[in-house]
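pinning this so it doesn't scroll away 📌
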Amino acid sequence: MNSPTHTSRRQFLTTAASAIGFPMIIPASALGRDGRPAPSERLTVGLIGYGTIATDWTGNFLRDERVQVIACADPMKKYGHYGYRGEKTGGRDAGKEVVDAHYSKAEKKPAKVCATYADFREMIEKEDLDIVQISTPDHWHAYMAVYCARKGIHIYGQKPLALTVAEGRLMSDEVKKAGITWQTGSQQRSDMKFRLASELVRNNRIGKLKRVRVGLPGGHTDWNQMASQQAPAPLPADFDWELWLGPAAEIDYRPALLPLNWRHNFNFSGGMITDFGAHHIDIAHWGMDVENSGPVEMMNIRGELKLNELYNTATKFHFECRYANGVEMVVADKSEELMPEVVGNPATGKNFDHTGILFEGTDGKWIWVNRDKIAASDVNILRQVAQEGEVKLYVSKDHTANFIDCIYTGQPTVAPVEIAHRTITVSHLANIALRQGVTKFEWDPQAEKSADDKINALLKREWRKPWAV
């Protein structure tokens, strides 16, 4: 279903691409969803949500000459306070300005190639898209992923994967059924430090792995400088609040939630346990070789949260997991000082704090990694690279490029949806236990259920009507 405006834009982009030596843009309908595009075929991209994370990552698509960004959907037209310091502007018009400016510079003449929509469904139906980048609050991820997967559209989906365990399972199953390419925005998997740490652990460079300690940020961060404005308020201009809520439970608009502080409310996200847990627990699983499974028991679960407040996710937390292979994982917010032997150790330098991953092996050997640095109990451990016949983990040096590569080749990405589901399930289970006052329970990672009915009660949620897939 193509409007006259869309058809003329497709024709314009095809001509422009040819003129400046880019691959030809081929309509998605011509690719054949059972096959893969040829290297000469340029793929079209639609942005779903243009806020903090989209402002950080859309440029990677713009700079890749194998794709063309042609549309942006967001229930906000234009709004400030985006970014981790509230320093950026988001909304569909802000996205259009960035996209059009990029292609105008590339073509050395004004280019108005990015269409805008409030409702992503209208964008999907009107635009001939091969790819979507989903950069919305967590409560939307499952609905949008299923909607796009059923259209045969490849998906770059930001983390955390989903809002519940059931949603993650649905997403993984639908992606597999559709045969599309999925990349989770867990970009640490494309960082050499995290891959090296996981590979060294998998090859027993620290002996037999016994325990993993994962330090996460805690607290509630006021990213938009509006935390004090928690009372219901008039809507900003050109903002569809009903659409922003989508399948989430009804709540009045409150400035304190937007554009990023929604991460502190269980209606939309899971706090730091899911936000940063999606990154660091993912790497812990990679090194533990349990990325397609999960814990069999969780225990010593404790935390601080106020369920009757707007910001109701845990500010402090601690939980432990036991896996079928006997390895234990301890996760806590950094106020606990989870890794005192690493922090302050001369071997680690000054760039280390309690936010990161510590792999502990036998005989006191360990490897520590965070986004700044990798270190070990003995520096020689880091020089013992994998040899022939040993485990060599997936090498990706560019997370977005890896996704596009895999669309063309049909190979799995470095961060598949099933692995992201298994990672975030651990975070969801911790949050459920904290909300339900459960301190210990067993978990069946194959059946994805517990013997404790209090845990099973919050594995899924009902979507607000009329939202359903």
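📌 and the second one:
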Amino acid sequence: MTKLTLGSYPHMLGFEQLERLLERTAKSGNEGYPPFNIEQTSDHSYRITLAVAGFAERDLAITVEDRQLVIRGRQRDDTEDRIFLHRGIAARQFQRSFVLADGVEVGEAVMENGLLHVDLSRAVPDTVVQTIKIRKG
């Protein structure tokens, strides 16, 4: 059985990058931590909200790498002077990745009540009709 790719369809030109994005997204294997929401805040904007209780702003890093929004968290170990009788709150690191479509830009990030909000916006494309002139060969 042969694997169907976007390149297998003769009318789908230039979608190789989309195919690579889909493969990369399928392999990302984001686990369930931290939980997150994605909401549409207007026709051309979105907000990703991650529950990052216990993390300070200095413990978080937000980057855009090859059209991927990557949010990383690593808590500092400040337990050297503390004696725990019970430790049920894990201090673990995480990485969450979100693939961004062309034209989606990352705006500001805000920490509020243990939630990290990252705003995204999509550029509104102009509707353009292009006429191609035929020259004599």
